[in-house]
């Protein structure tokens, strides 16, 4: 019973909150009537990543395109995009084996992810389609010096 009453009360409150609010009428007039219309567009800064599903071969130091990031914002004051690495810019593998790597974001090369990094500082809005940035990773390996354990190596990047 308590759940039913709560649901009914909640439904009534939602219905009341959604009801339109009308301005006070000023009465009939034979003069021109002016109506003001107000609207608002919230500020939006959005990211979309198209993942290529690439696998990085750790037996060679070769840049691998892992995807494309799209940035878009309607903020008149601009926006920023930052990235952080869960493992401080290292791919972590079996037995806690690690491989350093560098990130490329758009035209920025050799990004060190040992701490969070601001990637984009835009001073105005983008168009609806946004700005496209290639995202690539280069593992910093020397096969002779870094004879790595076989297995999977991972890191997690967070873009904000």
What can you see in these coordinates?
The chain is mainly beta. The protein has one domain: Immunoglobulin-like. Helices cover 11% and strands 36% of the residues. It is built from one helix and nine strands. The strands form two sheets. Strands 1, 2, 4, 5, 6 and 8 form a six-stranded antiparallel beta sheet that branches. The protein starts with a helix and ends with a strand. Residues 1-17 have low confidence and may be disordered.
Summarize the structure.
The protein has 160 residues and is mainly beta. It has one domain (46-159): Immunoglobulin-like (Sandwich).
Topology of this protein?
Blueprint: H1 2-18, E1 45-51, E2 64-73, E3 79-85, E4 90-92, E5 98-105, E6 108-111, E7 117-122, E8 131-139, E9 157-159
Antiparallel strand pairs: 1-2, 2-8, 3-7, 3-9, 4-5, 5-6, 5-8
Biggest β-sheet, characterized?
6 strands, antiparallel
Strand content: 35-45%
Global geometry: rod-shaped
Query: Which architecture name does CATH use?
Result: Sandwich
Into which percent range does the helicity of residues fall? 10-25%
Number of helices, counting only DSSP H or I runs of 4 residues or more: 1
Number of distinct beta strands = 9
Question: Mean pLDDT score, rounded?
Answer: 87
Give the N-to-C terminal Cα separation.
45 Å
- Extract low-pLDDT stretches: 1-17
CATH class: Mainly Beta
Question: What would you report as the Rg, rounded to the nearest angstrom?
Answer: 26 Å
* SSE ordering: HEEEEEEEEE
Helix/sheet category: mainly beta
What is the count of distinct domains? Answer: 1
CATH topology: the name is Immunoglobulin-like
């Amino acid at each position: 019973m308590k759940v039913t009453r709560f649901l009914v009360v909640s439904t009534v409150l939602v219905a009341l909150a959604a009801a339109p609010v009308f301005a006070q009428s000023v009465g009939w007039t034979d003069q021109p009537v002016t109506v003001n219309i107000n609207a608002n567009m919230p500020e939006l800064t959005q990211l979309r990543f198209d993942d290529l599903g690439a696998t990085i071969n750790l037996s060679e130091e070769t840049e691998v395109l892992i995807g494309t990031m799209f940035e878009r914002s309607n903020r008149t004051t601009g926006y920023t995009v930052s990235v952080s690495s869960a493992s401080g810019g290292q791919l972590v593998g079996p037995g806690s084996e690690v491989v350093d790597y560098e990130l490329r974001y758009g035209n920025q090369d050799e990004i060190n992810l040992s701490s969070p990094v601001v990637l984009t500082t835009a001073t105005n809005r983008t168009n609806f389609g946004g700005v496209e940035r290639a995202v690539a990773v280069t593992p910093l390996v020397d096969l002779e010096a870094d004879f790595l354990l076989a297995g999977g190596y991972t890191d997690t990047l967070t873009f904000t």
